[in-house]
Amino acid sequence: MNTAKVSSAQHPRRIGRTDILQFILYGRAFIALILVVLIFSILSPQFLSTQNMVIMSKHVAQNALLAIGMTFVILTAGIDLSVGSIVGLTAMIAGGLINEGIRLDFLGAVVYPHTWTIILISLMAGTLMGAINGIVITRFRVAPFIATLGMLYVARGFAGLRNNGYTFANIVGRPEFGNTGFERLGAGDFLGISYSIWIMATFALVAWLVTKRLPFGRHVYAIGGNERAAELSGVRVNPTKVAVYMISGFCSAMVGLIIASELVAAHPATGESYELNAIAAVVLGGTSLAGGRGGIGGTIIGAFVIGILGDGLVMLGVSSFWQKVIKGAVIVLAVIIDQAQARMQERIALQKQQELSSTLPNETNA
Prior knowledge:
two-stranded antiparallel ribbon, 14 helices, about 5% strand
């Protein structure tokens, strides 16, 4: 009889410090969410009021939408710094179409598109910006950081040029032009829940299904894990990369429309520094900046943490400068924790490999 084959069920493995630490690292976003809610609830009695919860939920929805698109990009080991600028550009596009329409100088006429057409055009514009990012990265081999940094300036510049730096105010449309109702996108609700939250939930569900159930999702993870191996296994790497940046651009455009609709105005500076919130939510939610590891569920929790943290600091009257310091520290801390988790997983995998190799000779001798 080989004693090495004694069932492990007779000697259950004890839960050690490594197991506890691993559990904390995996659930860090959820733990952080609980702590943030508890702290702000104690410091501000109005924090959990109905009115404040409604406001926070809208901000969280905007952060989550950006973070969903960013998750696809980071899963491929990329980065998209242009999302905030695309938010501003699409807001200005929608505002201009509502207030000024499309001038056809050769016909001496002005066409005012329907509200749904305006939304479609704006979404297409954001998706196009994402496609340009993807093409520059894949076709011209430009690093994602540099390509999207360039698009950040390009999109922000076009947003300013759209109305010479001025705001499109009172973008409610006119009944005779058939372009009214745009404000309902950001201010309307269904069953007492804001449209922006319904949109966020829909995007999150679709993104989760894509990453978990569809071949495209598996390809995204494969590219982030090992791009060369993914290419050798038949994954169309470049088209997939272009697609993830298009998804990011589409999500950014959606946020731009929601903000412009909620404010009933479009300003070229809309969405400034939003890319930091999106990256922070994704990394805090457990998606590795190295790619290939993470998911939509963690990103949504991370978006809640960032959104509640921002609104809580505002309620406490914390300076906007300190808010930036705190958010920057959160990003750095999240990356440090992510690196610690990666090292721990490598160590655990190595230990299991050593244990397996040590048991194989015993089984062979038996």
